[in-house]
Amino acid sequence: RIQNDVLNSAKEEGLAEGFAEGEAKGLEKGLEKGLAKGLAKGLAKGLAKGEAKGEAKGLEKGLAEGKRLTAINLKGNGISADIISACTGLTIEEIEIL
After folding, report:
1. How far apart are CA 95 and CA 68, in angstroms?
2. What are phi and psi of 57, to 5 degrees?
3. Distance CA 85, CA 83 (A)
């Protein structure tokens, strides 16, 4: 009977240790996987957002430069600042500076 008690106690102790070790390893692996997946998802989302923002900003700058160049050409051809303003959306002051 003592031998059975010792065996049962050893089994329970072994099961508890195995469970604790397995749980710790599982949590560690799960955390690693979750972190890697989260980082990848965050990076992809950040890149897409940054790309869209950069594209919009570039387009805005390009349009502004196009208006400026058009105004310079129109002004060089003797077109009035009022007409240039109406066509480009630039203010009279902006056109006079050109």
Report:
1. 8
2. -65, -40
3. 5
